[in-house]
Amino acid sequence: MSLMASSPEDDVRSDQGLVPGPETAPETAGGSSPEVQPAPPPRPRRRWPLVAAAVCLVGAGAAAALLVAATGSDDAATGSEPVTIRAVTAEQRDLIEYTDLDGTFGYADTRSIASSSPGTITDIVDDGTVIDRGSTIYEVDARPVTAMFGDIPMYRDLTEGDEGDDVLALEANLASLGYHIDEPDDDGDEVDTGFTVDGVYDAATADAVDRWQADLGLDETGTVSAADIIVIGGPAIASGITVAVGDPVQPGSPVLDLNVTGTVRTFHADRAGELELLAPGGPVRSGQVLFSVDDLPVTAIVTDETFDRELSVGIADGEDVRVLEEMLVALGYDARGDLVPDDEFDEVTAEAVEDWEDDLADDSDEVVVDGVVDLDQLVIVEPETTIGSVTERDGDLVAGGSELFQWRTEAGTRVVTTAIDVADQQKLAAGDTVDVVFPDGTTVVGTVATVATSSTTDPTDPNAEPTLAVEIALDALPASADGLNELDVDVRLIDELVAGATVVPASALVATADGGYAVEVVDGTTTSFVGVEPGMFVDGFVEVVGIEAGVPVVVPS
Question: Cβ(454)–Cβ(467) under 8 Å?
Fold first, then answer.
């Protein structure tokens, strides 16, 4: 349609855009001419005089005005006004469709703590308080509930005569808190007047419990109530406090959350003797001699595997053998290249052990070179472990049960937790990347760590769909999250992505009679309809195939 010369009969414009005249057939990307569906009935027609037109295109995506200015004396006679049509430039963009899930930013290891006994809250820590071994978390009826470190929960009351791993954890904590007594004898040597950390609740353990209870202001019963202790893996930060001083609680009543920031384990001498600490601190590596007692060196093996038997030729195959062989090879004891780490303890393995023991014997007369690995030669250490505080001693003798040092594994991993409907589970899998949007608008890339294999349903909503819990690890933390225990975030999933698409405003599309679509393209002082194939719609834009980026197209004013 020419805008330079028009007649009242042929040139008509409605508020929907130019209606194609008979002389201008729509064009497609391939040069064909689809039939264009007539526009809706026009408003009262405006007659156009002879005009001169100018086109001004401003940047990619910016509006361009096609101004049709009246000239000559006919304007005054006819009352015609200049006509302006608005055009925009087709752009090249990445189009993305998202699904947003509600998420929570927090710690990976969070313990929800509930009251173990009925009563009234008489004291409770503040949000953000750091909880350490021996810290009082809250009080019920003025009876303190104390944190201890370990991985065995306090599931029963403990009294003299009990045995088990929970007793061992109690004794280790009491020793670390200073209730294991080493006192000098008449010669100035340290002797053990306390208990042995051995998992046996004997009279000496009960005496240590009495001293602990006295310091807490409790009756000295020598019996530990399960309600008095909360066992966590290591230091924690209090958050999510749901009660206040004066609130009544029942067993099971929610009290607060503990965000565990690391794990701490203590190492205690299993026998008395002369101590030499050879590794005062730092990361622990396999093959490192940590200390010696009575000149017998004790070596670390860093592993998650269990070591609970003597290792020698003829024992059953096992992962502990493989881990030992890996350590020997890493230290250079490979039996002249013949040792291949597997799960079989054979003569080659024994030869490598003898070579290792022979070198240890150079510094210790107590080492027996026999190709047999006894449990008292090794300390099993979890990966990523660091020796923390080392217990200082006045003398050179150590009593059985004395704490030597603490293992510390830094954790405090910050993650995002969310949930996805079971019906949408195909949208997320472990290893997928997602965007996590924080309240200040910062977007951080996250990687799906786990997707639960069992669904849950909100018990408070009878119409709730079953969901799967999802945990997401973050590549980085925004500054806005520093110092915050918990934060609501959005987890953004990409449903569909079209990279480098040519897009126009959706309002530029014109329906054609054959069921297709076209756009009105500006070419100098004329416009023509070009057939296009619409694709993805996002935020008011539509992907179109049939024109190139940079082409101006008409849109409603």
Answer: no
